[in-house]
Design a protein that fits this description.
single chain; mainly alpha; about 60% helix; about 0% strand; rod-shaped
Length: about 170
Amino acid sequence: MNLRKKLVSFATWIGLKDKSGWDIITDLSLPLAIFIGGSAFTYVMNAQSQANSEEALKDSILSGYLESMRQIFSSSDDPRRKDPASLRKVIAARALTLTALNRLSSERDETDKVGSNKRKGVIVKFLWEFGLIEGSPPIISLRGANLRGTDLVCVQRPGRLKANFSPAEPLTTD
């Protein structure tokens, strides 16, 4: 009984005591529509913000990779030499390459053919233009790299693509 009095008191306080069910529905429809619309807008904006953050992260991964590779191969040393310093550079470059390709991959790679797949294509083009994946064996092997969905249009020119995706010969210092 005490609960009933409290409910009646609350209904009177918010102005619902003398209203019919239809009046209550019409009074609540606008605030409910605003709440649902605001929630949907917030959800969409959060999803867009997250997508933008992922794209910015992938851009920084690509630029960091290219800068690191530039530093590794900035000297005039031939990376095909078998001396220990050259081998360390090649090992570091392969590790950087595989890491960057893996980090640029996402679960959306199957459906998103624009963003990270073009970035992976830029990496392959970079390696190809510097002759690091040409020859037999290639200087840097892409064996084990996640190239699924990679945009290779930038390197597929008739008669020009000579990239070797076979495994590199084992690196030794003999």
